[in-house]
Amino acid sequence: MLIEVVTLFPEMIRESLLHGVVGRAQRRKLLQVNTEDPRRHTADVHHTVDDRPYGGGPGMVMKPEPLSAAIAAARARVPAGSPAVALSAQGERLTQQRVRELAGHKGLVLVAGRYEGMDERVLESEVDLELSIGDYVLSGGELPALVLIDALARLLPGALGDERSAQQDSFNAGLLDWPHYTRPEEFAGRRVPAVLLSGDHAAIERWRRKQALGRTWVRRRELLDGVELDAESAALLREFLQEQEIKS
Predict the structure, then answer these.
(1) Which ranges of 17-132 does DSSP label H, i.e. alpha helix?
(2) What is the pLDDT of residues 135-191, one digit of tens each?
(3) Is the predicted pLDDT of residue 218 greater than 60, yes or no?
(4) Which residues of 172-197 are buried (b: 16+ CB within 10 A; e: fewer)?
(5) CA-CA distance, 68 to 36, in Å (whole number)?
(6) Quick check: 121 and 16 in contact, CB under 8 A?
(7) What is the layout of strands, in order, in the sheet containing 84-93?
(8) β-pair partners for 185
(9) Does this model's pTM top 0.85?
(10) Rounded Cα distance, 167 and 164, in Å
(11) Interior angle at CA 126, CA 147 and CA 137, nearest 5
(12) CA-based nearest residue to 26, from 36, 14, 35
């Protein structure tokens, strides 16, 4: 997969991607990430990439000419049909489903905004999708771009040490993850649940499914809104709520 990031801080992108799963994916040639700096597309001696907003107000806005030219340069290097995605607080909330959809492309252009935002005309003419990683304010789109790249890298075949890890991640099946434990069997007076030590794989899978359903109900119930659970899942959720003495 080839990803081009349009950013005023290319070093921030490059240096952050040297580690972990993303770094391994790049070393294995599964992922390539390049950057394009809008400053390279300015004509003045100061390499100006921002200007005051029309209508007044605080802050500055990214100028359309260098930003549009940078996006065009990035588009020219990715496969035809690769979408351009702007990381923006006004964007659609990023979900695992959207990550899976984007992972189906051979290339992506990610546009990291700065200042008060990007000239709206660039978003209208050059960008296919706006994404937000949450309802809070960041200084720019670089961190959201890195979040998206990390989520995408996990889905690339061969990027993880065990391909089952991506299949079992939180949200992959629309649920939060179940609790995880490792050695020692007892820590701080708390023991690993006996079922995980039983060697009964069917019982372990049933316990994990029940915990995932229950944890989602307790912590992120909206994820279950409108979802029609099959009979087994519904029974497991009822069992969890009864065990925890939680009213449904």
Answers:
(1) 20-27, 64-75, 96-103, 120-126
(2) 999 999 999 999 999 999 999 999 997 666 665 555 657 899 999 999 999 999 999
(3) yes
(4) beebbbbeeeeeeeeeeeeeeeeebe
(5) 11
(6) no
(7) 32-36, 2-6, 107-112, 84-93, 129-132
(8) none
(9) yes
(10) 5
(11) 40
(12) 14
Mean pLDDT computed over 179-207: 96
Measured between alpha carbons, how far is 37 from 49 in angstroms, rounded to an integer? Answer: 10
| Residue 187, both tokens | 């820590």
Q: How large is the average pLDDT for residues 224-247?
A: 93
At residue 81, the pLDDT reads 96
How many Å apart are CA 94 and CA 108, to the nearest integer? 15
**Above 90 in pLDDT, residue 248?**
no
Tokens 């020219």, residue?
76
With tokens 């492309």, the residue in question is: 105
Contact 94, 100 (CB under 8 A): no
| 92 vs 89: CA distance, rounded Å | 8
Residue 244: alpha-carbon gap to chain centroid:
32
Minimal CA–CA distance to 181: which of 219, 207, 213?
Answer: 207
Which H or E run contains 10?
Answer: helix 10-16
Mean pLDDT for all residues in the chain: 94
- The three-point CA angle 76-81-87 to 5° equals 80
